[in-house]
Amino acid sequence: QGVARVRDGNCGAHAVVVIPDSPNVLEHHESSFRELGHDFRVVGLEMPGAGYTDLRTDERRHGRFDFSLESGAAWIRDVLDGLHIDEAIVTASCVNGLYAATAAKMYPERVRALVLCQTPSLPQLKRWAKRTVPWPLRNRVLGDRLLRLSRRRFAAFWYVRAVGASAAPDTRVRFDDIARQGFRAGASWRLAPLIL
After folding, report:
1. Helices marked H in the chain — which ranges?
2. Are strands 5-8 and 50-51 parallel, antiparallel or unpaired?
């Protein structure tokens, strides 16, 4: 269904899978790798439609990633399989938190623990998207094209909304800079159809 971008710390007895939420990429989580890497095998995973994960059909597989909760859970399981990880602590936010929670439900023997941030229920997430995401971006036909063409500007808008007012003043700028670097290098950002 595609090729996942994965960063594997390859050390530590227990694995922690860190899944950034778009427009964040693995580079936004350098501190996670640095701080957790002393005690855990830290694996960064970009989900479909985010960062450098490639959704072109892999010749060895059939079908296309459909952005359902079950497909997201299977994606996480497939990455664990590919890295020969029997079980992991999975940390994710927003819609990726829903994928992680579904993976824990579908494959309880594989998900040792969940750390979820900003992960409401699916109905709550849909209400939030309707309130927060401008209509043209919620439209499947227009939204993907607009994000491809204007993702740098939309990322800046996104970080204004997502980074709280109590954050250090340079936090939003740092997050936006990392996202822009990713976009210049070819990173993608697609709003999950699941929430729109």
Report:
1. 30-36, 69-82, 94-106, 122-132, 135-138, 140-162, 169-184
2. unpaired
> Which three-class secondary structure state does DSSP give residue 95?
helix
Helices and strands (H and E) in the chain: how many: 7, 7
CA angle 153, 155, 158 (to 5 degrees): 115
Peptide bond into 20 cis (omega under 30): no
Q: Would you give the distance in Å from CA 101 to the centre of its chain?
A: 13
What b/e string do you get for 133-160 counting C-beta neighbours within 10 Å, with b at 16 or more? beeebbeeeebbebbeeebeebbbebbe
Residue type, 94: C
SS3 41: strand
User: How far, in Å, CA of 61 to CA of 57, rounded?
Assistant: 7
Two tokens, residue 93: 């936010």
d(C-alpha 101, C-alpha 192), whole Å: 16
Query: Whole-angstrom Cα distance, residue 90 to residue 139?
Result: 31
123 has a pLDDT exceeding 80: yes
Instruction: Tell me the pLDDT tens digit for each residue of 70-97.
Output: 999 999 999 999 999 999 999 999 899 9
What pTM does this model have? 0.88
How far is Cα 176 from Cα 125, in angstroms, rounded to an integer?
Answer: 23
DSSP 195: G
What's the rounded Cα separation, in Å, for the pair 97 and 9? 21
